[in-house]
């Protein structure tokens, strides 16, 4: 590009030195924009001008050379003038784009705030009537004599439960997005939380003939965490049960990763295609639509929550099929003496 | 003074004519080479604006005197569609139809004075001035 422009410039310059024609200057002023567009630096342009100019005047008698020098300067001036203006315009344009982007970002933040406010309002207002729906559908199921009516009641109950879950997810997500106060972070043990979750899901897993295994022994895995951490584990383990085939296992393991505890939850499902490995942690993206239930908020909640704890969540393919969801959480930093006590391995 | 040159502007060729007429006057008046180039570049832009947006118009050039200061005044007049948003047209980032690339803001910056009158359907008159340094 630079070479072509140089050639074009050389031709115009040569023409002007012979004719002193205004048209040549006009052409240069248009050419100057191309120099700017090609991001050729001003110092390089000056250099280029001299290279081209010296080629042309080389061998001219001294008097002609002096005249040519003046004319050459006019051309260079025209070029630099146009360049400077094009550059100015370029800068202004980017400033305008920057301003627009900033304005857009502010509007977006405002929209997000409104959305979160909306979610928190509707979640409160929807929960109450839903409790009635659930309660009365249970009542109908218990009291109706007609089996078909009982079946209808069960369907209503299932739908209402589903809706209730959706609302809870939305409320949790909204709460997370608004930020959690520092005092809600408390000293907890990752393994204890995981054990609780595994206990909670035992029944659900066994209905599919599945088992949840955790490898770790009795060591302590201390972190600073909120109650959201349990939701994160629940969500990931719930998914592993949903997506794992019947009679398969879900394997849970905590590893020591320096400053972090790394939790892995492995299933034996079909795995997650590479192109959605990141997208599943966005809102309302779910890997398939084949009757797998969930709001599509679960992993988005998990991501937001785990990041709030200073960790990360991601998914990898497991050797031999299935997926492993990994989560990291910073270890709780003890005082120096505590650390000595809790890490006798370092002494040996 | 009082001597006024008019250039009909219809095509790219006329832009070059306008430049050369204006440059000759500026040179005669004693403007230095850098100012001559500034003025020529501004005229380029004004003339280009006429060709691109109005199709045709005129460029008027004259010497003016204010107090003891001589200056050059250039008017660009057309009967084109006019400009509804003058402020926008003068912003540097604004350059429609991929013209010379120098928005009208360039002309404004290159000259000492810049005035513009325009309304949709009523054409555009732009007046620019540059004063001769004493």
Structural class from helices and strands of chain A? alpha+beta
Helix percent of chain A reads 55-70%
Structural class assignment of chain B: alpha+beta
Helix-strand string of chain B: EHHEEHHEE
The number of distinct helices of chain A, counting runs of at least 4 residues, comes to 9
**Oligomerization state:** heterodimer
Radius of gyration of chain B, Cα only, in angstroms?
A: 14 Å
User: How much strand of chain A?
Assistant: 5-15%
* Major beta-sheet overview of chain A: 5 strands, mixed
Q: Can you say what the CATH homologous superfamily of chain B is?
A: Histidine kinase-like ATPase, C-terminal domain
Number of helices of chain B: 4
> Which percent range describes the beta-strand content of chain B?
25-35%
Unreliable spans of chain B are 95-102
What is the overall shape of chain A?
elongated
- Please mark out the parts of chain A with pLDDT under 50 across 5 or more consecutive residues, or reply none: 335-348
């Amino acid at each position: 590009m630079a070479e072509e422009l140089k050639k074009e410039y050389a031709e115009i310059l040569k023409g002007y030195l012979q004719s002193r024609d205004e048209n040549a200057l006009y052409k240069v002023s248009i050419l100057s924009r191309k120099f700017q567009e090609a991001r050729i630096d001003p110092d390089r342009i000056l250099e280029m001008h001299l290279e081209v100019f010296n080629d042309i005047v080389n061998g001219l008698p001294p008097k002609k050379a002096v005249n040519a020098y003046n004319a050459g300067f006019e051309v260079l001036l025209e070029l630099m003038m146009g360049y400077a203006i094009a550059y100015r315009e370029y800068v202004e344009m980017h400033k305008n784009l920057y301003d627009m982007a900033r304005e857009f970002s502010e509007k977006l933040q405002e929209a997000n705030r409104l959305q979160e406010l909306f979610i928190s309002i509707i979640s409160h207002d929807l929960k109450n009537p839903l409790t009635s729906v659930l309660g009365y559908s249970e009542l109908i199921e218990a009291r109706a004599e007609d089996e078909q009516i009982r079946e209808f009641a069960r369907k209503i109950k299932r739908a209402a439960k589903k809706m209730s879950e959706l609302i809870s997810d939305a409320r949790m997500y909204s709460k997370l997005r608004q930020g959690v106060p520092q005092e809600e972070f408390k000293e907890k043990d990752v393994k204890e939380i995981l054990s609780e979750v595994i206990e909670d899901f035992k029944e659900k897993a066994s209905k599919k003939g599945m088992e949840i295994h955790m490898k770790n022994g009795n060591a302590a895995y201390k972190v600073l965490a909120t109650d959201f951490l349990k939701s994160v584990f629940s969500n990931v383990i719930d998914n592993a049960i949903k997506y794992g085939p019947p009679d398969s296992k879900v394997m849970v393991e905590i590893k020591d990763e320096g400053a972090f505890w790394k939790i892995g939850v492995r299933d034996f499902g079909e795995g997650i295609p590479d192109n959605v490995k990141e997208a599943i942690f966005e809102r309302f993206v779910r890997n398939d639509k084949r009757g797998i239930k969930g709001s599509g908020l679960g992993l988005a909640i998990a991501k937001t929550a785990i990041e709030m704890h200073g960790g990360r969540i991601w998914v990898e393919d497991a050797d031999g099929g299935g997926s492993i969801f990994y989560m990291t959480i910073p270890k709780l930093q003890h005082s120096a003496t505590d650390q000595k006590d809790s890490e006798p391995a370092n002494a040996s | 003074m009082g001597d006024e040159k008019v250039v009909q502007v219809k095509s790219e060729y006329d832009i070059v004519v306008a430049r050369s007429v204006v440059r000759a006057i500026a040179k005669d008046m004693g403007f230095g080479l850098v100012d001559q180039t500034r003025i020529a570049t501004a005229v380029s832009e004004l003339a280009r604006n006429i060709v691109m947006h109005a199709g045709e118009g005129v460029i008027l050039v004259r010497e003016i005197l204010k107090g003891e200061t001589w200056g050059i005044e250039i008017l660009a007049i057309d009967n084109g569609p006019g400009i509804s948003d003058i402020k926008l047209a003068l912003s540097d980032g604004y350059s429609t139809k991929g013209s010379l690339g120098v928005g009208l803001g360039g002309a404004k910056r290159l000259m000492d004075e810049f005035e513009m009158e325009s309304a949709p359907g009523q054409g555009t008159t732009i007046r620019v001035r540059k004063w001769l340094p004493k």
